[in-house]
Amino acid sequence: RELKDEMKKALMEASEGGHILHLNFGPHAVNLKDLFCDEESFPAELFSPSDWAVKFVEFAGAEHTLVDGFQVVITALLSKQCVDEKFTSLIPDFENFCLILLDPQLEESAEVIGTGRRAALQFSRSCVPEQEGDDAEAGSVARGSPSAAARALREKEAALKLRKYGGAHEGDAFCGSFEFKEEWGEFWDLRWKRGPCETDDKGKAINKALINVKTCKYPIGKDAQHCLELMGGSNYTHCTGLYLNFDPVIRPTEVEFCYTVQGKADMSNAYITFTGKRWQGNLPGSVAGITCCTYQKGGGVVLSAGSGQLVSLGNAPKYDKLIKCRLSIDWNRKIVIGTTDKDGKGYPAARQTTPFRDDQCEGFATLYIYNTEVQATAWYNWIRIVQDENAAVIDTKAMDARAELQRNIDKREYDKAVASDMAHGMKMGAISATTHGPDGEQNLAEAQAMSFASAAGAQGL
Predict the structure, then answer these.
(1) H or E, element range at 228
(2) DSSP character at residue 356
(3) 371: helix, coil or strand?
(4) Interval 51-94: pLDDT, tens
(5) How far apart are CA 66 and CA 362, in angstroms?
(6) Is there a contact between 269 and 380 (Cβ–Cβ < 8 Å)?
(7) Which residues pair with 213 in a beta bridge?
């Protein structure tokens, strides 16, 4: 409702001011007819100059005046083939639009939105100045002025009201600064998609009815927050819940999220996973950069490291209490520094650094949230992604020192346990490497067994 109110306001301002109404589709073919056009806020007649001149009086009232110069311009990063095939059914009166192709080499990249539920329409007023001289005779943008249309396209970033991210390209990554926070508002399902994995770990098709997504208030009571509830999953199978694509890829310096989860103690759930490529059928093929998940008991909140080990960030949340988790990312060293705030008192000092799962990951193309258990439920209150091109270099000296100290403490405790076991003659794996015999061919357990057999033989047992 808020978006449609803003669209109506932008339409009225452009109509009464004689401005250009700029609708930016980005890399999507958005279904304007079915999702956004209605009689109250965004009539279909506005796309036809003659029809809008008549409809405007009924729409706005006799006290308002339609000023000459009002035009509608649509910009999209799509191929001409896609526009020719799809836009006639998606945009009212599109057959009367003048099509201007700015980049003939643009590859096919459209994602057609059948009902408009998979892409947010990013729109704004684009007040492109009228041209002077001969260019003015050629007409305005809607009539096909290439230079005006080119300016409108170049200025699209400044014109967008809802910017996900911004900046400038550097290689394949988008290296500017931005902040994006998903709080599951009215149009969250225009950004997120279901899946993408459709088969389980045994190659069988996943029953989609077992995975349900909705927004709700959680936990129940006075502390209830607006959350996304992700219920269910496929056992031992990744990327079955929701995913969000980034185009172009991003290199965030910080990821933070607020959540809780309920599931089996020995299963991992409430995943936050970033990959460097779109889904390739599995995580290794998709170049997984960061994976954070939760075990109800044992590991708690963990990061998956490149060597296959799990690095603990803190205890698992109680199912009825939301906690926060923060991941700081160093792209130069391909490491992640994670910590959790379980009681709202702030983040404690991080314990250690965690390497990327795949050090070939140079940016994030997709974010996945999911469970790997049928009976699990995860609640995400919000997810925040920050990309700061001026972020300070992360100093990990104190962290590395704490990690080394902890390793020494753990080793000392282990050595004490081994010494105690040996004192009591325990047969365990830790002493199996202790050799005896003239050539070192026996371990301690074998030597004890042979001594007992020799004694028994001497006594005639």
Answers:
(1) strand 225-231
(2) -
(3) coil
(4) 888 888 888 888 888 888 888 888 887 777 778 888 888 888 88
(5) 51
(6) no
(7) 230
